[in-house]
Amino acid sequence: MPTARSVIFPHARRLAAGFGVIVVGLLAFAAVLDGVDEHGDLSVWDSPVLSWLLLHRSAPATALLRGVSWLADPNVLAPFVIVLALGVAWRVRRVRPALLLGGAMALAMVASSGIKTLVGRARPPLSVMVAPPETSAGFPSGHTLGTATFLLVASYLLWTWRPTTRTAVLSLAVSAAGTIAVAVSRLYLGYHWLTDVTASMALAVAIVGVVIVVDPMLPALVRWSTMIVARRRNSAPSVPAVS
Question: What is the pTM of this model?
């Protein structure tokens, strides 16, 4: 029979790790945003990086990176994630992966839309964009945020299923490679500044921290919500039958 210490202590360590990841992600995001507001720090590299990429454009690279960007489009990525999450849930007969992955992606979408509206930062000039142009606010990059969140949360779920150093290293390497590929595609195609994609990466780290915190509490949260729904149904007044 497990003791209170054996049950609580592992959760306490994971909660502490999750909150630590959240703090690191939010601090990095705040640092990037502060640089954007003050036109300093990392933002001084926005124009030089964009200019360098424009000078090194080529037809093959443009075709490749347009494909990468298309795969990371929220309208493409979201349905894929939904199908994947449902498929995994059916395969393992558990809803936990679907709830965590779906919740993280929803949080990423809400955060991206909300921050874009609040910051209202302009994208690079339309003249440097590869068609079709985009005119909405550019900070942070929704493509990069969605991809980074998906890959990092998937890596975390894979590690919880097989908690080995090899799993952690390989999954994080794949996450980093995929995120960087999407970030480079958005920069290369002229849709974003360097700080847009960097802020997205930092925000994705914070979202993964939220997943790490919620994960051990998920069974209790599901039971709590189920009890609330059941109590509301039981307390609802009965409707008299109409004869």
Answer: 0.85
